[in-house]
TrEMBL record:
Major localization listed first in the record, in broad terms: secreted
Residues in Chitin-binding type-2 domain copies: 20-73
Keywords: Secreted, Signal
Keyword set includes Secreted: yes
Protein name from the UniProt record: C1q domain-containing protein
GO cellular component: extracellular region
Domain C1q: 208-326, 342-483
Organism: Paralvinella palmiformis
Gene3D superfamilies registered for this protein in UniProt: 2.60.120.40, Chitin binding domain
Subcellular location: Secreted
Length: 489
């Protein structure tokens, strides 16, 4: 769509030709004026002008924001990295390359281009990404992050399911101007609605953290319980904390850390794993997949925030069943030190529950407060109180019992506004025969004075016991009052 004021007379422009002097018809930007463009037909041109405030983008041939058009270097500031984009428009079938995300929670300095479907690295350094997908009933999911130095997939091969959510995190080192896109493979279908089940988010640690201590490793081996899962293929290790021969991460400095783990679950196979730290005699949280109706390799994942002193360790321990690579590098372990650059204050939390809840319930209670940096989690209201406006990264995981449904939501409450659903974890299949864990994450801008809590839907069951399957964690990434460059796509 062209947004122009009218045809401009008297502009001098020469339409391009090929090596055989044949005219190249099309739209071209003006070499001197970013607000002008020229339409060439048979080497004759007509000059148009964009609406006030817009520039012509020579790559996609439309008038758009100067920040996205890339014509004027003084306005081309796509050097940001933080983004969170989603879809809310029903079913999509593969193959699609790229998958277009039509809505933005965060698009700081426009690293994500909704017209091209591409994300561009505004800086070199260590990156963190999260992808989630709503698995359409009875269909497979194979979502790929293309352009990465190592393969990254979110997979659900099982087809005996209703609407379901799968997710996964990944970390990698990228050069400035690296271009990534999400693709949906053939014989795949995804779904998204008001619960924003399909989402892609990420940020650069070098941009937002004072001290970058981070690692990411994968395994190509099928591992069987009981064992500490060893991720022998170390993709990077800034700070020398990870040990690929033992599977342990040893904190090089004291502080608050974020950790993430993913695994593949083979057909009809059990999986039960937990985060274990030398700082605690008990496991921190468990990830379960029962040997029920899964008829193919599925992606499992979990993340948390935890405080370690220098020298203390954390590992992933496989308690039962298998941990599988699934031919898609699904078996991975990563993490980073949470050290936001001033003036962003440290705000982080990790809470869990050992109780099973039945909906409707608002809010869901979390009686175990494991991490609360900045005193943000209020156990009397079971909510996170936002005292600093900014970009917050949050993760919600829940256990699911056999023969039950799950609809559990991250909800924002703010004075003068109706509660807003930020993200939903859902499984609409009452015939699973075992306990499963499912969850997802998001990055969103929140205003000071608002609160965030967890809400359980009608007839839903959120299962948890002493193994703490149901958890809620998060942190403030970047303090910003009015994100002018965030907004809608």
């Amino acid at each position: 769509m062209f947004l122009f004021q009218g045809v401009i007379q008297g502009q001098e422009f020469t339409c391009p030709v090929d090596e055989n002097s044949q005219c190249l018809d099309g739209y071209y930007g003006d070499p001197e004026d970013c607000t002008l463009y020229h339409e060439c037909v048979d080497c004759q041109y007509t000059t148009g002008q964009c609406e006030s405030g817009l520039h012509f983008d020579k790559d996609v041939h439309i008038c758009r924001s100067p920040y996205l058009a890339g014509c004027d270097p003084d306005n081309y500031i796509r050097n940001g990295t933080a983004f969170c984009v989603t879809r809310g428009n029903g079913r999509v079938d593969g193959p699609i390359n790229p998958l277009i995300f039509s809505e933005a929670y965060v698009n700081y300095k426009y690293p994500y281009d909704p017209l091209m479907g591409h994300w561009r690295a505004g800086l070199s350094g260590v990156y963190f990404f999260h992808m989630s997908a709503g698995a359409y009933p009875g269909r497979k999911v194979n979502m790929t992050l293309a352009g990465t130095p190592h393969p990254f997939y979110v997979v659900r091969d099982s087809q005996y399911h209703e609407l379901d959510v799968i997710s996964r995190d990944a970390m990698m080192v990228l050069n400035m101007h690296s271009v990534l896109a999400v693709t949906l493979e053939g014989d795949s279908s995804i779904s998204s609605d008001a619960g924003k089940q399909t989402m892609w988010a990420g940020f650069n640690l070098d941009e937002f953290m004072t001290d970058v201590v981070a690692f990411y490793a994968v395994s190509t081996q099928l591992q069987q319980a009981p064992t500490t899962v060893v991720f022998e293929d170390e993709h990077f290790d800034v700070g020398d904390g990870y040990h690929p021969t033992t599977g342990l991460f040893t904190a090089p400095v004291s502080g608050t850390y974020f950790f993430t783990f993913s695994s593949g679950a083979e057909s009809y196979a059990t999986h039960r794993s937990q985060f274990v730290s030398s700082a605690s005699p008990a496991g921190l949280s468990e990830l379960w997949r029962g040997a029920g109706q899964n008829t193919g390799v599925d992606t499992l994942s979990k993340s948390l925030v935890y405080v370690l002193n220098a020298g203390q360790t954390i590992e992933v321990r496989l308690l039962a069943g298998d941990a599988s690579n699934g031919q898609s590098t699904l078996l991975s372990f990563g993490g980073f030190l949470y050290s936001p650059k001033p003036p962003t204050p440290q705000r982080a939390w990790f809470v869990n529950t050992a109780s099973t809840h039945t909906g409707p319930l608002d809010p869901v209670g979390f009686e175990n407060e494991v991490v609360d940096v900045g005193d943000v989690f209020d156990q009397t209201t079971n909510s996170v109180t936002i005292d600093t406006s900014g970009y917050y990264y949050m993760s919600l995981y829940t256990g699911m019992t056999s023969d039950s449904l799950v609809s559990i939501q991250i909800v924002e409450q703010s004075e003068g506004h109706d509660p807003a659903i930020l993200a939903e974890v859902v499984r609409s299949e009452p015939y699973n025969t075992e306990v499963d864990t499912l969850g997802r994450s998001l990055l969103v801008h929140l205003k000071a004075g608002s609160q965030v809590n967890i809400r359980l839907g009608q007839d839903s069951v959120s299962y948890s016991n002493s193994d703490k399957q149901t958890t809620f964690s998060g942190f403030l990434l970047y303090a910003i009052e009015d994100p002018d460059l965030s907004g809608s796509l």
